[in-house]
């Protein structure tokens, strides 16, 4: 109740080159990202400081919870992302016309996707190609398989750094 509407020049949003989406609050310089379950019940809050450090409420429920970036209704497809900046980049690239759910981690993609079964789902996979087993892609494929969805993979050149769609956005622009 003491939180205020987040500001667009929050250092995290500026560093990630993303717009401030509706629904974010701020307290003590930290972004507050609410995490709701499929029934719309608040389960926890993610706190993001200006440096990008993230934490959740003690004893909060992250599994199965997500933050919704509402779409303009031009498509029935639902997009899932692991992190906030990635989700905002995808939402902006789609001109805010599609609903994007931020799942807070690749490990939560399957549970969120399963709770939203019934709509066309596109999982926007992080490309953790420098991590053994590429967990971003592996978990995205599991989520898509669980709901008959599809996967969009962030791609990079051989020597290009980056792992997610926010990195693509920052390196090559929203059109890419």
Secondary structure layout plus pairing:
Layout (H helix, E strand, L loop, with lengths): L3 E2 L5 H5 L9 E3 L2 E7 L5 E7 L5 E3 L10 E3 L8 E4 L2 H10 L5 E4 L6 H7 L5 E5 L9 H13 L2 E4 L11 H8 L4
Parallel strand pairs: 7-8, 7-9, 9-10
Antiparallel strand pairs: 1-2, 2-3, 3-4, 4-5, 6-8
Number of helices: 5
Q: What's the number of extended β-strand segments?
A: 10
Calculate the mean pLDDT score and round it.
Answer: 96
The succession of helices and strands, N to C, reads EHEEEEEEHEHEHEH
Descriptive tags:
single chain, 176 residues, five-stranded antiparallel beta sheet
Task: Characterize this entry briefly.
This protein is α/β, with parallel strands linked by helices.
Please give a structural write-up:
The chain is of the alpha/beta class and 176 residues long. Helix content is 24%, strand content 24%. It contains 5 helices and 10 strands, in the order E-H-E-E-E-E-E-E-H-E-H-E-H-E-H. The protein has helices at 11-15, 84-93, 109-115, 135-147, 165-172, and strands at 4-5, 25-27, 30-36, 42-48, 54-56, 67-69, 78-81, 99-102, 121-125, 150-153. The chain has a 5-stranded antiparallel sheet with strand order 1-2-3-4-5, with no helix packed on it. A hairpin with a 2-residue loop joins strand 2 (25-27) and strand 3 (30-36). Helix 2 (84-93) packs across helix 5 (165-172). The longest helix has 13 residues, at 135-147. The chain is globular, with a radius of gyration of 15 Å.
